[in-house]
Structure formats: structure tokens, C-alpha cells
């Protein structure tokens, strides 16, 4: 799920910084997903665009390209003020995120054990 070389490239190869980025993502991602769910339910394309854009950027910087592309699709739909299909895409993200979290947690545990 994670392209670790892309993730490390995003931090200039700094593993300690990547751990910090991962921890920040894990704090922020649940709030972003909640914003996405609320925006879809309310028909708020402005909030949907903002939350999906931020989630996309975070996912891509962590090397989670497939989920990043899903968030990007939501972002594009929101930018065009379209909600059709966003429920399905949101579900796809919600299904993928636990595996991403697991892989990120494993990386953090390995790096902390190496210190």
C-alpha cells in the first residue's frame, strides 16, 4: 500500500522526519475523513474540496498513491460541484485507511525500536 521510497523522498530521506509526518497524518486523517463524510451528507462541496485536497496531499506524500488518487477524484468532483459518486469513493477510502494505518504504525514501531 505504501511506496516507502516515495515517502522517504518527501522528507529528503530523513526517517525521523517521516515518523513525525506519519504521526501528524494519523492525528489529522480521521478528522479529514469526518469532514469528508459530513460534507457529502450536507452537500457542502467547499468543505469536501478542502478536506479531500488535504487528505490527497498527505496520502501522496506518504506514498499511498492509490488512496491519494481516490481522494484526488473526490477533490475534482467537489471542485466541479458534483456529489454523485462521492459516497462510493468515501467508502473506498474508509476501507483502505486501516491497512494504511497498520503499515504506517509498523514503520514507526520499527524506527523507534532502532533508536
What's the short version?
This protein is an all-alpha fold. Helix content is 83%, strand content 0%.
Describe this entry's structure for a reader:
By secondary structure, the chain is an all-alpha fold. The protein has one domain. Helices cover 83% and strands 0% of the residues. Helix 4 (65-79) runs antiparallel to helix 5 (86-113). The longest helix has 28 residues, at 15-42. It is elongated and about 45 Å long.
Which percent range fits the helix content? over 70%
Principal-axis shape? elongated
What is the end-to-end distance?
25 Å
Query: Total number of β-strand segments?
Result: 0
- Overall structural class, as computed from helix and strand content, comes to mainly alpha
List keywords for this structure.
115 residues; mainly alpha
Q: Secondary-structure map with pairings?
A:
Elements (H helix, E strand, L loop, with lengths): L3 H7 L4 H28 L2 H17 L3 H15 L6 H28 L2
Helix pairs in contact: 2-3, 2-5, 3-4, 4-5
Amino acid at each position: 500500500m505504501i511506496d516507502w521510497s516515495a515517502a522517504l523522498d518527501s522528507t529528503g530521506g530523513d526517517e525521523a522526519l517521516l515518523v513525525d509526518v506519519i504521526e501528524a497524518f494519523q492525528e489529522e486523517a480521521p478528522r479529514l475523513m469526518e469532514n469528508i463524510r459530513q460534507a457529502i451528507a450536507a452537500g457542502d462541496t467547499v468543505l469536501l474540496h478542502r478536506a479531500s485536497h488535504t487528505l490527497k496531499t498527505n496520502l501522496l506524500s506518504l506514498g499511498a498513491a492509490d488512496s491519494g488518487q481516490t481522494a484526488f477524484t473526490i477533490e475534482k468532483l467537489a471542485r466541479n460541484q458534483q456529489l454523485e459518486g462521492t459516497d462510493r469513493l468515501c467508502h473506498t477510502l474508509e476501507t483502505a485507511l486501516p491497512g494504511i494505518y497498520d503499515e504506517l504504525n509498523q514503520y514507526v514501531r520499527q524506527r523507534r525500536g532502532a533508536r
